[in-house]
Design a protein that fits this description.
alpha+beta; six-stranded antiparallel beta sheet
């Protein structure tokens, strides 16, 4: 038999015929094998090993890119099929639908597996063959694995990290111009794809067609993302690799996001926008005429062109494409506060870019095509400016006011002025240049409001006793005239 077994392979079957002289000879075995018996054996080799054998590793799939391999004390997650040398399956993580998660090289595994996993890349697949003395030895495991069994593990590595790891940042695209980088306390809007190390997608803002909006550096997101979003530029794309102790830890996260425990997370992010709640309007002047003496102020009537976009360049609106100017009275609440600020101290012909943070724009809710918490960019050209009236006035006189003003308005001299008389008189003063109504408003409404405020008893007419000029009013009175 010693001679017959030499050269056999595992799973090889041999029929062996042994003459008496190479078996039990003329004596035989009492009660079992007669003297001079020829012996016949049907042999199937199940397992073999040598005391000098070491762990054997056969890699049959290795990723092209391998930035990190398993080292001693790393924590790994892998799938495996465990078989004997003859191919009999004794265990499988695939059947349990759960990875095997453990530290490597610190005695949590059988010695042969501790050695066999070293040097693996995420995504690598290898077959690890372990002799019994580096596995479960003479005793086996007392269950499925018999004593002196060689073990074969078909391993696919899904994940690895070290408890001492920090986050890893890989810049993929950084804008040439970056005036400011994100800091603690900023509010960011960004898109992302979130995957596990093996490429399994667990979440994506793109699929929801909505950016993820959050403060950074304040604990609103997992610690690794809080750190990884610092120092980014608007428009930047980067990959952030987060070890589990800076992600979702040993428990992982179920529900909508299928993140297993102890999983390394990979986020490919694209920053579209960020601002700080303390930010004010940012104004950059591109062109200012040499003769720039009349500057816009509160109450002025302005006509201007603009292109409005988001920080990532997405066009929102354009008066140029509509072929008409945008007309407002500055300081009257007709535009968002940031635009009101951005149009001040501007002269006709001037061109500037005004960047408006959301708390001075459309806020957290947004409006129409403007997303919530969006920074707005307006490229503005002021085309016309009509000076407004002093604050608190809707009508002013040019020159001295007639001492007989009420009598002049009361053309029929009946001591009563009705709205029609009042309107005709005020309009005549405007047409002749003796008076001026606040520009940009409905003149009929202004005059009617002036009339109503003079009609103190509300009977639809003004008497001489009711009629007062501004300088005749008390501090609590009406001041339209």
């Amino acid at each position: 038999m010693d001679k017959a077994l030499v050269g056999m392979c595992v799973n090889e079957r041999r029929f062996v015929k042994i003459p008496p002289k190479l078996a039990y000879g003329s004596e035989g075995v009492s009660g079992v094998i007669p003297p001079n018996a020829v012996l016949h054996f049907d042999v199937l080799l199940i397992d073999l090993w040598n005391s000098e054998d070491e762990v054997q590793i056969q890699t049959y799939l290795k990723p092209e890119k391998c930035t990190r391999t398993i080292q001693v004390s790393d924590f790994v997650r892998y799938h495996y099929n465990g078989t004997f040398l003859d191919g009999t399956l004794f265990d499988s993580s695939h059947n349990r639908m759960k990875t095997y998660d453990t530290y490597v090289g610190i005695g949590w595994l059988i010695p042969g597996m501790d050695k066999g996993l070293l040097g693996m890349c995420v995504g690598e697949k290898r077959i690890i063959t372990i002799p019994p003395y580096l596995a479960y030895g003479e005793e086996g495991d007392g269950k499925e694995i018999p004593g002196q069994a060689s073990l074969v593990f078909d391993v696919a590595l899904l994940d690895l990290h070290n408890p001492k790891d920090g986050i890893t940042i890989e810049n993929q695209q950084v804008p040439e111009s970056c005036e400011r980088k994100s800091q603690t306390g900023d509010f960011l809007r960004y898109h992302y794809n979130g995957t596990l190390l093996d490429g399994t997608l667990f979440d994506s803002s793109y699929s929801r067609n909505h950016t993820y909006d959050t403060y950074i550096g304040k604990g609103y997101v997992i610690a690794g993302m809080d750190e990884g979003l610092l120092g980014v530029c608007i428009g930047e794309k980067r990959r952030i690799i987060i070890p589990p102790h800076l992600g979702y830890g040993e428990e992982g996260r179920g529900e909508l996001r299928k993140i297993p425990g102890s999983a390394v997370l990979v986020f490919d992010i694209h920053v579209t926008d960020f601002h700080n709640p303390l930010d004010s309007v940012n104004i950059t002047t591109h062109y200012k005429p040499s003769n720039c003496t009349v500057l816009s102020k509160k109450g002025d009537y302005l006509k201007y062109h603009y292109n409005a976009s988001l920080l990532d360049g997405t066009l929102l609106d354009s008066t140029i494409s509509l072929g008409k100017t945008y007309n407002i009275v500055l300081g009257s609440g007709q535009v968002v506060l940031g635009m009101d600020m951005g149009l001040r101290d501007m002269c006709v012909g001037e061109r500037r870019t005004v960047i408006i943070p959301p708390h001075l724009g459309y806020g957290e809710a947004g409006v129409g095509e403007v997303p919530g918490s969006a920074v707005l960019v307006f490229d503005i050209e002021l085309l016309e400016l009509v000076s407004g009236l002093p604050d608190g006035y809707m009508f002013v006189w040019h020159g001295d006011v007639s001492p007989n003003l009420f009598e002049e308005i009361d053309k029929d001299n009946n001591g009563e002025v009705f709205l029609e008389e009042f309107s005709e008189y005020i309009q005549a003063q405007v047409d002749s240049g003796k008076g001026k109504l606040a520009p940009g408003f409905d003149s009929a409404k202004i005059v009617k409001n002036m009339f109503t405020n003079q009609d103190r008893n509300g009977d639809g007419k003004i008497t001489a006793e009711e009629f007062k000029l501004k300088d005749q009013e008390t501090s609590e009175g009406h001041d339209e005239l």
